[in-house]
Design a protein that fits this description.
Layout (H helix, E strand, L loop, with lengths): L2 E5 L5 H12 L2 E7 L2 H10 L5 E5 L5 H9 L8 E6 L15 H29 L2 E6 L12 H21 L4 E8 L2 E2 L2 H5 L4 H6 L7 E2 H12 L9 E4 L14
Helix pairs in contact: 1-8, 3-4, 4-5
Bound molecules: NADPH dihydro-nicotinamide-adenine-dinucleotide phosphate and 2-hydroxyethylsulfonic acid.
The site of 2-hydroxyethylsulfonic acid has 6 residues, from loops.
Length: 249
């Protein structure tokens, strides 16, 4: 029977690399995100396994449910859910924070993850098995200057992951949390609202993690034997020791 992985935020960065890597490991891929042209490009790139695309905004709970309901029968037995869609919006002191940015981070990183999980879970419950991987962050373990609401959103992902693991263990569903440090993706371009020079400076002077590093880690986690759950992993570039300690040339 086909092994199916549902990946949110598959249009770039960690999600894209994870979709490609899981396909290499024999998974049929449900790739999701808002940018339909990117979803088409991903479909072209993954030639070894079937890919089904769903375009929706994770903030829209009705759209999330409709997208999952629209899956053809042969795509409904989802074994792996990668809750990856998310971003930071802004990097400002709390007292200068933008309500729009705060809404975006809480709505996407926290509520979006809840909506997708809520929609996909019944499909796993029917099978009495499944594996949910939530992409948290070092920002869910520490708070750093100006990180305030992004850190809060990732602390929420940390709490939700622990809570899911406790409640879903009786359903035979594994829950894992992957918490990366600095990964060079479109993340900083989004955080700095298209300021590419500022975004590039985040990754200068040291070797940042690449999306592929996280994809390989996720692939390792989902391919462990049935009795093994890698519950939580913190993965950092070698030059990074904490949110605020990064050794740059
Ligand atoms: P990218 O910006 O490259 O990718 C973000 C992905 O999230 C895109 O595919 C985007 O798709 C999707 N997304 C964003 N908003 C929405 C939305 N409203 N609805 C649906 N999809 C959405 O960043 P990364 O790959 O780095 O980020 C992936 C995850 O990793 C995030 O949760 C991030 O917080 C986390 N992370 C990143 C780190 C880093 O340093 N890069 C470190 C630690 C954690 P689209 O725009 O097409 O909708
Ligand atoms: C992304 C890493 O350090 O920008 O979660 O918060 S960081």
């Amino acid at each position: 029977m086909a092994r199916i992985a549902f990946v949110t935020g598959a249009t770039s960065g960690i999600g894209w690399a994870t979709a490609v890597e899981l396909a290499k490991n024999g998974y049929h891929i449900i790739a999701t995100g808002r940018r339909t042209e990117r979803l088409e490009e991903l479909k072209q790139e993954i030639t070894n396994m079937p890919v089904y695309t769903l375009a929706f905004d994770v903030r829209d709970k009705d759209a999330v449910q409709q997208a999952v309901n629209s899956l053809p029968e042969e795509w409904q037995q989802i074994e792996v859910l990668i809750n990856n869609a998310g971003n930071a919006h802004g990097l400002a002191p709390f007292q200068e924070g933008s309500l729009e940015d705060w809404d975006a981070m809480m709505d996407i990183n926290v509520k979006g993850l809840l909506y997708v999980s809520h929609a996909v879970l019944p499909l796993m419950q029917k099978q009495k098995k499944g594996h949910i991987i939530n992409i948290g962050s070092i920002a869910g373990k520490e708070v750093y200057p100006n990180g305030n609401v992004y850190c809060a959103s990732k602390h929420a992902v940390d709490a939700i992951s622990k809570a899911m693991r406790i409640d879903l263990v009786q359903e035979g569903i594994k829950v894992s949390e992957v918490n990366p440090g600095l990964v060079e993706t479109e993340f900083s371009e989004v955080r700095f609202k298209g300021d590419t020079a500022r975004a590039a400076s985040v990754y200068k002077g040291y070797q940042a993690l690449q999306a592929q590093d996280i994809a390989e880690l996720i692939s390792f986690i989902v391919t462990r034997p049935a009795h093994v759950n890698l519950a939580e992993v913190l993965v950092l570039p070698t030059a990074q020791a904490s949110s605020t300690v990064v050794i740059k040339e």
